[in-house]
Amino acid sequence: MRFEDAAAMLGSSCAKDIDSNCRGVNPDPTRLKDCLNRNQDVLSPQCKNDYGPAFDAIQKRVAARSAVAKLCARDVAKLCAGVQKGDSGKAVECLLAGPRGISINCSKAITEAGYR
Amino acid sequence: MRLPKKTRRYLPLLIALLVGSIASSSSAQTPAGGPPADWVSKLAEPEAVPDLDIAALRQQTADRVKSRADGVATKRPPVAPQLLKLPQLVVEIRFDEDAAVVRPESYRTLGRIADTLTHPTLLTTKFLIVAHAASTGRRDNNLTLSQRRADVIREVLVNTFRISSKRLQAIGLGEEQLLDAARPAAAVNQRVQIATLGSALEPERPASAKAAPAPRPPTKPAKKPR
C-alpha cells in the first residue's frame, strides 16, 4: 500500500476520534498510536478497525524499502555498472529496467517496496 | 482579459489548486491534487542548483520581522525570492488553529509527499520544506508558528515515513513571502512549499581525476627506529 493510501485511511477513519481523544497529537507512529491504543474503549468502530492496519501498512512499506538495499546489493554491484556507490535512486532505476540475471529476491523486494 | 503580472505568474499554480479541489474524493481527506507522477516531475533536480544558506535565510527573515521593516503586508517584497526559482510543489496542509498540529484531513497529503520523496528519481535528492502564514494576527507569532509547522512536517516525514533527516530542511517564512500579496489574509497564503535543494549524494570525483589512477595511499611507513 502506498504511503498516501495508508495515511488517508488513518485520517479518514479516525478524524473524529483524533479530534476528541488525541487533540494536539501529530501523526507520529509512536505517539498517535499510543494515544489511540489508550482510547480503544471509546474509538469509533471504523477507527478501531483501521488504525492498526494503517500504521502497519506504513511500517511494512518502510521495511520493504530498506530491504531493497540489502537484498539487491549484489545485483547492483553485478548488473548496474556506473551507478555511484550510495546512489540508491539510480540503483533502483537500473534494477527496474530489468537487467538479465537479476536475483529473484531482489526482484521481489522491488515489487514489495512499491517501486513498480 | 489582461491579468496583472503577478496573477499571471501564479496562474498555473492557482489552476492546479483549483483542479485539485474539484477532483475531490468522497472521503473527508483533502485531495492531494493532480496525479502522483506530476508531483515527482515538479521536483526533478535541475542541472544547477543555487547554493542556499538556509540558516542565513532564517536569520534574515527573523531580522526583517524584528525590525518591522516593510510594515504594509500588501507592499512587502518576498523575503527569499531565490526560493521562488527552485523546482517546487505547493500543497495545502491544514493545521489546528494556532498550533503546529496537522489536521487528520491532511494526512493523505503528507503520505503523498512521502511517496513523492521516495520515488526512485528523487531518492537521493535534498528538499526544503517551507511553511507560510497568512497575514492575520501578530507578524512575529506568524513567523514562529510557520517555523514550527515546517518543523512538524519534517518530523512526520522523518519519524513516520522514515525519510532520511539528512535530506530534509525546514524553514518558516511567516507572512514574509505571501503568495497572494493583494489579499494578505487569504487562506492560500498558508500554503506549504516543498522545494528541491539538489543532490544529497557526495559529489563524484571529476572525470579527469577518475581517468588518472588515484595516487596510491602512502604505504605504511616502516616502523620508525626507536
Structure in words:
The complex is a heterodimer of chains A (116) and B (226). The radius of gyration of chain A is 19 Å and the shape is elongated. Chain A has two domains: 3-65; 72-112, no CATH class. In chain A, helix 1 runs antiparallel to helix 3. Chain A is mainly alpha-helical and 116 residues long. Chain A contains six helices and no strands. Helix content of chain A is 68%, strand content 0%. The model of chain A has no long low-confidence stretch (mean pLDDT 94). With 226 residues, chain B is of the alpha+beta class. Chain B has a single domain (34-202), classed as OmpA-like domain (60s Ribosomal Protein L30, Chain: A), CATH 3.30.1330. Chain B contains seven helices and four strands. Chain B has helices spanning 5-22, 36-42, 54-67, 81-84, 107-117, 139-159, 207-211; strands at residues 88-91, 125-131, 168-172, 192-199. Chain B has a four-stranded mixed β-sheet. In chain B, strand 2, helix 6 and strand 3 (168-172) form a beta-alpha-beta unit. In chain B, helix 2 (36-42) packs across helix 5 (107-117). The termini of chain B are far apart. Chain A binds chain B through residues 2-8, 10-12, 14-15, 18-19, 23-30, 58, 62, 65-66, 84, 86-90, 92-93, 96, 115, and chain B through 27-29, 32, 36, 96, 99-102, 104-108, 110-112, 114-115, 118, 120-125, 152, 155-156, 159-162, 201-202, 204.
